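Good morning,

Both structures are done.
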Amino acid sequence: MGLPLLESTNQIDDLFKKRYSISLPSTQLTSIKISPNGENLAVSASNGKIYIYNLADGELITTLTGHTKGVSEIVYSPINSNILASCSDDLTVRLWNTKTNKCIKIFKKHTYHITTLKFVQKGNILISGSSDETITIWDITSNKILTTLAAHSDPVSSITLTPDDTIIISASYDGLMRLFDLETSQCLKTLTNSTSHYGTATASTNDVLNFPISKVEISPNGQFILSSSLDGKLRLWNYMENKVYKTYQGWEKAKICEKFNCDVKFITKLKKNPLIVSGSDNTGLLIWDVQSKDIVFRLTPEIAGKDAILGVDIYDQGAVLCCCSRDGVITVLDLNEKYIKKAENEEKEQQELDPREGYDETPAETPRTETPREESPGNDTPRDNITRDDTPI
């Protein structure tokens, strides 16, 4: 399926259509999330407020107040669209009921800015990462801390979970990604640019300088990790094999996550044309074709916001896409129906030719080693059934 190619123009390609934009002047927006039921849109800001909108039309429903400093990230409970969690520079994690507009719980443990949050799928456990270099796992039912992990040697910038909720994946400014067993807290594996041969060697030594990693996201089938680093590149990792399969970047003057922690997401609505989307420092919103690495869509700064796009989220596998910027612009877009229909028709035709054809959506086998495995001709380590030219996500 051919997608329109866009490199650097002032035109919005027709892959996505803008539904609406909202402007909050003099407000630095930090994170954006769509509720699991697709009804509401939550946006956090550096002024400590959280704005809740009707996703359909952008009408403001309520504003949540309580944090005394900037809100770093927000996340909805996977099982209750009225429950929202937030983390802040005020060193608290808060749980909100967006229906009653009340803060229902406050959690305190971290000693420095809290940077990232993630719910497990059952909604009973919340995981936070902090600039104090730790990860804390909270039982929100009992209000107890289950454990605190001394995860990194620099601030924890991002966390995600495998689809089966067994593995925490953390990223840090120390240039490392670590995989922890959620139940045992054991570190199963450490991924670094040096193991994937993407590090930068110093002039006087053989040491490798690992660029700080700002965001991580797991693919829907659990086989790949997408990371963004402050060298301005996105990398698609097969973490079972300790390999980077593809690298994505902008053009020469495009600043992709070189200064700010910009969200990255997978878009799988187009079936066999998986996409990745990222915010940027100065280039608007960018979308790449996973296979070709071409930029197939750009929402320019004139529309998405002229400052950095920090928050990005999707709904219905990317049928709805939203983003927010540091200069107070919220944008909601819809995937063009003609591309959705085309993808569905092509998949149907292929299945009629070969009913077995399709992507393997079986989650990757959980890694159980603490250090990366060395490759050898006799290595019988299970491997994902992929090639560089055909990368299911």
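Second structure follows.
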Amino acid sequence: MTMRPLLPDVVEGETKMPWTETSRTTAEANQDVPRRVILIGPPGAGKGTQTHTLATHLGVAHISTGDLFRRHVGGRTVLGERAQTFMVRGELVPNEITLATVRNRLAEGDAAGGFLLDGFPRTVEQAVFLQQLLRQSGTGIDAVLEMHVEEDEIVRRLAGRRTCRECGRSWHVEFDPPRAEGSCDACGGALAQRDDDREEAIRRRLDLYEQETRPLLDFFRERGLLVRIDARGPVAEVGERAISAVGTTDHSGRS
């Protein structure tokens, strides 16, 4: 598939941010480990919990598109101002802005040694863009990890969340219950279930995720890059599975 360049290398007027996500370990000197990894998973799969552990193990920069947008907005950069106009309306940030944000971040020095991408790509078009961008530097995607959890388990995880109306502290009726049902241990405020944590809303989000992500997973599977990880069970066990998965991946940068 041929794709014309979508964006200049650096957006005019853009200010580089002082990124601090890099985690360096002994893996930095080990050229046999995957260096450019993508993490994909549905809401409630525990993806956010695993990113720091995996990035530290690999000795690479953890790059989250959500964090990128928030930092650009906070830093009042050109991209941040453009993204904020959509974010405040609850709309998706346009593809062009997302691609420019990722391109600029990957140009930062710490990403040259490798990265763990979280939240990007979300579409096949974005995946092709990333492939072309990495080819310019003679590299490629080493592995794509899919955090897999059955739908009913995700509903169980998300539907049990409760949030304090006063202090915002989060609880879980099964995994982290307060001492008194319906009352926050921290401040005594009333606990409530967010609308998007109700079962019907969760299943709608999962249906949308499946529709949007399936073509992307197929794209990476066809290229031999996709590795599915069982994300059930204790956090530490899931982390061990993820580390084991990247250790057995054929990371020849085939993309």
